[in-house]
Design goal:
With 169 residues, the chain is an all-alpha fold. It has one domain. It has six helices and no strands. Helix 1 runs antiparallel to helix 2, helix 1 packs across helix 6 and helix 4 runs antiparallel to helix 6. The protein is elongated, with a radius of gyration of 17 Å. The mean pLDDT is 80.
Length: 169
């Protein structure tokens, strides 16, 4: 029963993370071409969250039997959940902390704009606002979780990609 509850909880987390990531990708795509105070490679910042979000949503909704077939793993193999789950957890935790550090660190410590948006994708959405416009509470409860969801979807996708070299014919 504990295994089933874990699988259900993981699927809910993967779905929410994927939905948030897909929504941010669409938002970035809709901002393409607008006059923003920075230059960014929009196809990357819109495409990566969108595509990894779609993978996360599909992994949450498709039956284990189908995902097992795609990746050449038995549907009851625990690694079908643990490998992508660990990828999600590691990158989501790192992204949450990075968003928090970007808020707490002085502006002079921030890397260039491309690196900033690569490490904290949601920082692109809030770039037009000054640091005084968002409090630590809004960072902890809104910006950092959104960044964690996006990078969690990326970690999930990397976790599933881990199976391809080991795929059995």
């Amino acid at each position: 029963m504990a295994g089933r509850a874990t699988r259900i909880a993981a699927r809910i987390v993967f779905f929410v993370s994927g939905a948030v990531s897909t929504a941010v990708g669409v938002l970035f795509w809709s901002m393409h071409g607008t006059e923003l105070p920075y230059q960014a490679e929009w196809p990357i910042f819109a495409g990566v969250p969108f595509l990894t979000g779609v993978v996360a949503v599909l992994s949450a909704l498709l039956p284990r039997r189908w995902t097992g077939k795609v990746f050449g793993v038995a549907p009851d193999d625990p690694s079908l959940l643990t490998v992508p789950g660990k990828g999600w957890l590691v990158l989501a935790a790192a992204a949450y902390l990075i968003a928090l550090v970007f808020h707490l660190a002085p502006e002079s410590w921030h890397p260039g704009q491309q690196w900033t948006f690569s490490l904290c994708i949601v920082c692109g959405i809030t770039a037009s606002m000054g640091p005084q416009d968002h409090s630590l509470v809004s960072i902890l409860l809104m910006l950092a979780p959104i960044n964690a969801a996006i990078y969690g979807s990326i970690g999930l996708t990397v976790g599933y990609a881990w199976f391809f070299p080991r795929r059995r014919p």
